[in-house]
C-alpha cells in the first residue's frame, strides 16, 4: 500500500489562457468565444482584455512558480493565438509566445502540462460553422492540435485535449447555443458534444503519432452526487445525475462509444447525434492515456418523475446552468451536511476520495488532479501580505484526501490546484480569487497588476518541499 506521496509526484498549479493572459488582441491573436462572452459583461466585472496580464508578466510569474517549487505547470494554449481564425494561417507570433513560456518553464525546472482548449474556441469558427455544431470544427481542432504537437512536442510531453467538455457542453454561451426551443437546444448540444468527442479522439491519435513519449487525456469536471435520502429512487437519481453529467463522458473517453443507457437517454429525448461511418474506429483509437480530474465540490439529488407536461429528459434551471434538474432522472438538492463557500460550492474533501476511487475503477488509467481550489475575495494588506487561512484549510483537507486515495490504490500522478496566480473567474470577474499569488487587479480593471505571494503560497511551498509530509 502506498504510504504518503510517491517520490516523483507532480505538485503543480493551474491556469487557462483567457483567464490569465490578457493581450486579447495582441500578437495577432483572434477573438475567442470566451472573449465574446466576457465582453458582454464588462460593465459589471473584469473581462479577458487584461485579466492577470500574464502575456506581459510571464517571466515574473514563472520565477514565482519556481520559487514556489512547482514540478508542473498546467496551462492552456489559446487556439486563436496559434490559428487566429481557427482553421487558416498559423500565427508565428503566437508560436513564439508559447515557445518562450515553455522554454522558461523548462529552464526553471518546471514541466509544462498543456491544455489545448479551455473554453476559448476561436470566434471565427462560430461565424463560419456555428462552432462545434459542424463536424469541420472537429477537423479544425485536430489540425490545430497537430500544429501544437509539431512545434512544442519536443519539449511538452503531457498534453490535455479539452478542459471540462462535460461541463462546457451544459453552458449555452460557451457553446454559442442561442435556440429558444429547449428540445432543439438539446439536439444541437448532443451533436456538438459528439463532435467534441470526435475532435478529442482525433487529437489524441495525432499526439501519439507526433510526440515521442507523449501522453494525452481529457480533464473532466467531476460530479459526485449523494442521494437526498436512502429511498432507492433517490439513490438512482443521484447516480443518474452523475451519469448524465460525467459518467457517459468517462465511458466515451475510455471505450470510444456511448453506453446503451446513454443511447436510451438520447433516443428517449429524440436527440441522437448524426455520426459518419468510420467514426467508431476514430473514437476507439483515440482513448485516453490518463484521466485528469477537476474537483471543487459535491452535489445532492432526489428523484424527479417525468409527467405529461414534462417529458423525460427535459430540464429545469434553478439558479445556474450546470446543476439543472432533469425530469425522469434527477432533481438538484442542497446537502445539509456540508458547508458551502461564499459562492455556493459545497465543500467536501471526502468527495474527492470518492471521485478518485470511482473514476479509477471505471477507467483504470493513471490520474491527475488539474483543478481544485477555493474561490474567495482575498484582501491585500498595506504591507503586501494576503492572509488566506480558509484556502490553506481547504487545500490541506483535499491533499489529505489525495493521500487517502493513493493508499486506496489510485495511481494519482499529481495534484495541480487552481490556480497559480489570481485570475479572471470563468464567469464571476476578478473578485473571486483562487491563486497562490495575489494579482493587484479588480473588476474595474484599474489594478497595478503587481504580484504578491499569499500565505497559502508559503504554506504550499513547504508542502511541496516536504513532498506532502508537512501539511501543518
Ligand atoms: C472550472 C474551470 O470549471 O472551474 C475554470 O475549468 C474555472 O476555468 C474554475 O475558473 C472555477 O470556476 P469559477 O467560475 O469560480 O471561475
Explain this structure:
With 472 residues, this protein is of the alpha/beta class. It has a single domain, classed as TIM Barrel (Alpha-Beta Barrel), CATH 3.20.20. It is built from 16 helices and 15 strands. Helix 15 links the parallel strand 12 and strand 13. The longest helix has 29 residues. The two termini are 24 Å apart. The mean pLDDT is 96. Bound molecules: 6-O-phosphono-beta-D-glucopyranose (BG6). The site of 6-O-phosphono-beta-D-glucopyranose has 15 residues, from loops.
Name the features:
single chain; 472 residues; alpha/beta; TIM Barrel; eight-stranded parallel β-barrel; 15 strands; globular; binds 6-O-phosphono-beta-D-glucopyranose
Strand order of the largest sheet: 1-2-3-4-5-7-12-13
- By DSSP (H or I, 4+ residues per run), the number of helices equals 16
Radius of gyration from the CA trace?
21 Å
Name of the CATH architecture: Alpha-Beta Barrel
Oligomeric assembly: single chain
Distance between the termini: 24 Å
Q: What hetero molecules are bound to the protein chains?
A: 6-O-phosphono-beta-D-glucopyranose
Average of per-residue pLDDT values: 96
Strand content: 5-15%
What general form does the structure show?
globular
> What's the CATH class label?
Alpha Beta
CATH superfamily annotation: Glycosidases
* Unreliably modeled segments: none
Q: Please state the structural category.
A: alpha/beta
